[in-house]
Amino acid sequence: MSQIFPKATNWAPVVLAVVGPAVALLAIGCVWYFFSPEFTDVGYAPQQPVPYSHELHVGQLGLDCRYCHVSVEVSAVSNIPPTQTCMKCHTVIKRDSELLAPVRESLASDKPLRWVRVHNLPDYSFFNHSVHVRAGVGCVSCHGRIDQMEVVTQVEPLSMRWCLDCHRNPESHLRPVEEVTNMDWIPPRDHAAFAAQVIEAKNLRPPEDCTACHR
After folding, report:
1. Angle at CA 125, nearest 5°, toward 79 and 196?
2. What does the alpha-carbon distance between residue 20 and residue 14 come to, in Å, rounded to a whole number?
3. I need a surface site. Which of 24, 41, 48, 132 has the fewest CB within 10 A?
4. Cβ(59)–Cβ(147) under 8 Å?
5. Distance between CA 160 and CA 170 in Å, rounded?
6. Where are the domains of the chain?
7. What is the pLDDT of residues 157-183, one digit of tens each?
8. What is the signed CA dihedral for 203, 141, 191, 55, rounded to 10 degrees?
9. In a 10 Å sphere around its CB, with 0-12 CB exposed, 13-18 middle and 19+ buried, how is residue 177 labelled?
10. For 174, phi and psi rounded to 5 degrees?
11. Considering the entire predicted model, what is its pTM?
């Protein structure tokens, strides 16, 4: 019986064994480079339904983060404030402002405003806000100087490498829990000793294995 395939076909498994992993690594590299949050999301500042200024409300008026984001200390997710929170002030302050028309309409219709999420992790990543807040990680470590932002902008990549860098060396991000929302907090000279004490007292051992974030 004559051969169906040429002799060169015998090299196919060898070629596949060499080329296959190379193609896979190239594909992974392309996805990592072109689609990683480290390269695509820093600087992301979407337009919101209402132009809310953190620079005004937090920076100038001194509004505490937890006045609006009330669940950040107890929940895995930091909540977006409901319309009623906005109207606690704006039933009196600038109640006829055209910029606040969507807020008034939301209250009248009982339909929530559709805020656009800025810091948006992929569905395959798990992040718990309350754990980090209770450990003493300041808002500014992840969100930057929100109190100076007219428009909220993503300033950190939120990439896996960025998270792991903090988990491996959390000391510089730790502060007293009561200072977590203080954007102007300056570490004391003995901050290294303070961080070491916190790590020991709270038994902080930030996980570095896959299952910590990918559940």
Report:
1. 80
2. 10
3. 24
4. yes
5. 15
6. 7-35, 45-80+115-212
7. 998 889 999 999 999 999 999 999 999
8. -140
9. middle
10. -90, 140
11. 0.78
